[in-house]
Amino acid sequence: MTEPVHIVGAGLAGSEAAWQIARAGVPVVIHEMRPAVATFAHRTSDCAEMVCSNSFRSDDDVMNAVGQLHWEMRAADGLIMAMAERHRLPAGGALAVDRDAFSASVTAALRAEPLVSFAPGEITGLPADGHWIIATGPLTSDALGRAIAAETGAEALAFFDAIAPIVHADTIDMDIAWRQSRYDKGETEEERTAYINCPMDRTQYDAFIDALLAAEKTEFHEGETAGYFDGCLPIEVMAERGRETLRFGPMKPVGLTNAHRPEEKPYAVVQLRRDNALGTLYNIVGFQTKMKYGAQTDVFKSIPGLQSARFARLGGIHRNTFLNSPTLLDERMRLRSRPHLRFAGQITGVEGYVESAAMGLLAGRMAAAEALGRDLGPPPGTTSMGALVHHITGGAEAKTFQPMNVNFGLFPPIEARAGRRGRKDRYPAYTERAKTDFSQWLAG
Ligand SMILES: Cc1cc2nc3c(=O)[nH]c(=O)nc-3n(C[C@H](O)[C@H](O)[C@H](O)COP(=O)(O)OP(=O)(O)OC[C@H]3O[C@@H](n4cnc5c(N)ncnc54)[C@H](O)[C@@H]3O)c2cc1C
């Protein structure tokens, strides 16, 4: 008899992982703490509960990276996608579902699977041996969170994500912005030009502060503590403390010379820092925020140089337990220091229902292969699933690592064919390549 794989957490990731493992013919034991131990966001004791919106976002597998991820999960016989399809609600191009019916059928499918068994209860420490997948999500219980922090080092496990917006580099107007590190610091030319800078004059700065103060903000959920205030104030809170606070904080103009107008001293500067090894994504330094998404887009596009920016993700601050995966996990999603422990879902530093379920799918397949004495590597980085797992386990900057949605900025750039320009041509080329490469990976 093959040794079972144990899964901690029956959320989006854990449920998908369990399904994949059972389908591979390997027994699986699910350890879920609800309902005995509650979280502030879950309402039921069902598997794969959607705690907030009921949407799996775009289902367009030609023009959208998350739609492409749906396609890959369907191709891999994913339970989450199958049940989402069964309980689909009309929502234009998005895949929205009847959340209660969806979770109930994921639960029923797992309970009906002969190789799946349930061992209810909270897991409070890291198991010493066996095959394990830890998929305890953004609201990992305190006891397990402490055990993970003890193993990884406290600084490698975050309890909040303070996300600054991330911009596609090719949408920054470099006729206005310029590349320079503050005081030209750095040993190499690459380091001396590591940041992209957007200048503001006094009028632009004043208008920006007014817009920040007036913008609509989201509130914390009940039960979410506001311990974030120590290290990472939202920019709107800084602006509330005084109109000049940002100019002496993340927007300080010192040590920078506008390459386009060297004679003009900027009144304030917004800096963007590289966010991935490919150099396709940049985050706005120090710009974590609780502004609503619509307001963020308006306010950030008023920054000179970002008027046409497209955002790979917008900013936020949430309760979220996640690992510094680029330093802690190998490419098979195993903890480097204890390879019998695999992580999956939002705790690995992906963001969102679909991305979490996709990481569950992958971890499940890899764990099942291992239990059967085989080895399975990740899909190529040209696929949505591969791009995401490569990002979290190596492609992302470890120092500034924050949870990530899937997006085309994570894909290796595609060779432009004659006449191929803009997104309208590039995106179908990305998804066409992804489908071919994912199918090959599955077949292999
Ligand atoms: C308040 C809030 C709102 C969100 N809104 C959205 C949204 O609108 N859209 C979106 O895409 N994403 C949203 N997210 C992110 C969302 O949580 C994830 O996308 C998704 O649920 C992550 O899947 P997961 O399987 O990693 O974690 P989860 O789905 O949270 O599953 C983890 C499971 O592990 C269990 N568990 C935790 N600790 C233990 C333990 N020690 N022992 C046993 N079981 C344990 C939990 O009870 C839970 O069932 C939100 C998150 C939060 C906190």
Automatic annotation (TrEMBL):
Its main location: cytoplasm. It is found in: Cytoplasm. FAD binds at residues 9-14. GO terms for biological process: tRNA methylation; tRNA wobble uridine modification. Signal peptide: none annotated. Keywords: Cytoplasm, FAD, Flavoprotein, Methyltransferase, NAD, NADP, Transferase, tRNA processing. It comes from the Bacteria. Its EC number is 2.1.1.74. GO terms for cellular component: cytosol. It is an enzyme of class 2 (transferase). InterPro entries: FAD/NAD-bd_sf, MnmG-rel, MnmG-rel_CS, MnmG_N, TrmFO. Residues 5-374 form the MnmG N-terminal domain. It catalyses: uridine(54) in tRNA + (6R)-5,10-methylene-5,6,7,8-tetrahydrofolate + NADPH + H(+) = 5-methyluridine(54) in tRNA + (6S)-5,6,7,8-tetrahydrofolate + NADP(+); uridine(54) in tRNA + (6R)-5,10-methylene-5,6,7,8-tetrahydrofolate + NADH + H(+) = 5-methyluridine(54) in tRNA + (6S)-5,6,7,8-tetrahydrofolate + NAD(+). Pfam families: GIDA. GO terms for molecular function: flavin adenine dinucleotide binding; tRNA (uracil(54)-C5)-methyltransferase activity, 5,10-methylenetetrahydrofolate-dependent. Its cofactor is FAD. NAD-binding protein involved in the addition of a carboxymethylaminomethyl (cmnm) group at the wobble position (U34) of certain tRNAs, forming tRNA-cmnm(5)s(2)U34. Belongs to the MnmG family. TrmFO subfamily. This is Methylenetetrahydrofolate--tRNA-(uracil-5-)-methyltransferase TrmFO. The lineage of its organism: Bacteria, Pseudomonadati, Pseudomonadota, Alphaproteobacteria, Rhodobacterales.
